[in-house]
Amino acid sequence: MIAGGVLGWLEESQAKQFFSMLADNFPDGEIVFDFRSRSDDGVMEWIDIVPPEQRRAVRAAWADGLKDWWEKAPQDQKNKLSDMIVTFKMPTKPKGKEWADIDAWWNQLSDKGKEGVMAGFMTFFRGGVGRWAPKDANEITKWDSRITVIDQLPMFKNIPRDSFSAEIRRVMDYSDERRGSSIIHLRV
Question: Which pLDDT band holds residue 43 (cuts at 50, 70, 90)?
Fold first, then answer.
């Protein structure tokens, strides 16, 4: 079974239940999946290896994506997002819960402040709400004796880098060195 980009959205209790269910129903089955590790807690540190003009482009694209989401999201999700923003350790907060308030707040932030907001979102969605983010695949074997790790390798380990720009190669190398993103192969 292959599960790419899925399991990191589960809470730990859901991940435990999922792996036990696999072991119950597919003895000696195998699963390959990716995850972002807790060891990648400095998720926004990669920004330091990206040239300043590209950092601005990343921040602008991120803000545009958030605005697009806002225009389509139900009010309860907008309220949750607004409440989450208020929890960030920032010197200023949006004055209200409307897009105009968030946009005005975003536009008055320094570049460093914007990077702090982006890091806050990443932290919140990766671990701040109980999401499963193991430090190492071997943690999973403690949940159920039927689970064994066949392999764990850095996300970009076997990807040839010569066709990528120097910036992309640096991000890939950075991720692999920190084991921030990994591919896991388990037998259940």
Answer: very low
Q: What is the 3-class SS of 116-144, one letter each residue? A: HHHHHHHHHHHHHCCECCCCCCHHHHCCC
| pTM beyond 0.85 | no
Which residue ranges make up each domain of the chain? 2-37+133-187, 52-128
Q: Residue 109 and residue 161: Cα distance in Å, rounded?
A: 35
Residues 131-158: what's their mean pLDDT?
86
- The residue type at 16: K
Tokens of 174: 């950075």
Whole-angstrom CA distances from 53 to 43, 74, 174 are: 20, 34, 20
- Nearest 5 degrees, angle CA 139-CA 142-CA 143? 105
**Three-point CA angle 156, 158, 161, nearest 5°:** 70
- C-alpha torsion angle, residues 73, 115, 4, 41 (rounded to 10): -130
pLDDT at 133 over 60: yes
